[in-house]
Specification:
single chain, 205 residues, mainly alpha, Hypothetical protein af1432, three-stranded mixed sheet, 10 helices, globular
C-alpha cells in the first residue's frame, strides 16, 4: 500500500535531509538553494505544468546537489559524484525511477546540459528526460543565485511577459558574481522554455 501524500512527503524529506546532514559540509547554502529552486518552480508552474511529486524531486536534488564535494579532491566533477552518492543511498521513500531523476537533476546543476551522448540521460523515457531538463534548468538558476554562498538574493519571483521570463531578485549587496553565473546557467531554461531570460534586481533595505 502506498503512503498518503502527506506521509510520503514527510518520509521523503526525512530521507533527503538525513543524506544531506551525513554528506554536506555547507548546509546553509544548499538549504537556501532549495528554497530558491522551489520558488522558481512555483513561479513557472504555468509553463512546466509539473506536479507536487516533481516538486519534491527538485527539493531533494537541491539539498543534495553538492554532496559530492566531500569525496572528490577538487571542485571538478563533484556534480557527477553527487549523482553517484544519490544513487548509492539506501532510500526508503523514493522508488528507483525517482532516485535516478534526482541523481540526474543534481548531476546537471552545473557544467554541461543534459545530452543524448550521456548514457544515463539517453536511457530515460522521453517523459523523464523532459522532467530532468525542466528541474535541472531550475536548479541551475537557483544555485547560480547563491554563487557566493552568502545568501545575498533573499527571494526570487518570476514574471512572464510575452516570449520572456523575467526573474525579480530581492537582494542585498553586490551581485556581480551571482548575475554572471545566472546569465551563464540560464542556458538550459532558455532552451526548455523557449524564452529569453532576464534578471531585475530589486534591492532591499
Amino acid at each position: 500500500m502506498s503512503l498518503p501524500d502527506e506521509d510520503f512527503t514527510r518520509a521523503a524529506r526525512a530521507d533527503m535531509l538525513a543524506l544531506m546532514q551525513q554528506r554536506e559540509a555547507r548546509p546553509v547554502h544548499v538549504q537556501h538553494v532549495a528554497r530558491l529552486a522551489l520558488s522558481i518552480f512555483d513561479g513557472l508552474v504555468s509553463l512546466h505544468s509539473l506536479s507536487s511529486r516533481e516538486r519534491l524531486l527538485l527539493e531533494a536534488a537541491a539539498h543534495l546537489h553538492d554532496i559530492g564535494h566531500g569525496t572528490v579532491p577538487t571542485d571538478e566533477g563533484h556534480h557527477k559524484e553527487s549523482a553517484r552518492l544519490i544513487r548509492a543511498h539506501p532510500w526508503t521513500s523514493f522508488d528507483a525511477r525517482e532516485v535516478e531523476l534526482i541523481a540526474q537533476v543534481a548531476r546537471y546543476h552545473r557544467r554541461v546540459m543534459p545530452d543524448f551522448t550521456h548514457e544515463e540521460f539517453r536511457n530515460l523515457s522521453e517523459e523523464d528526460r523532459n522532467v530532468v531538463m525542466i528541474l535541472a534548468a531550475l536548479l541551475r538558476l537557483a544555485d547560480a543565485f547563491d554563487k557566493t554562498h552568502a545568501q545575498l538574493i533573499r527571494h526570487v519571483t518570476a514574471a512572464l511577459p510575452e516570449n520572456r521570463i523575467v526573474f525579480h531578485l530581492e537582494a542585498q549587496g553586490a551581485l556581480e558574481r551571482e548575475l554572471a553565473a545566472a546569465r551563464q546557467r540560464a542556458d538550459l531554461a532558455a532552451l526548455v522554455f523557449r524564452r529569453e531570460i532576464d534578471f531585475v534586481v530589486d534591492a532591499t533595505t
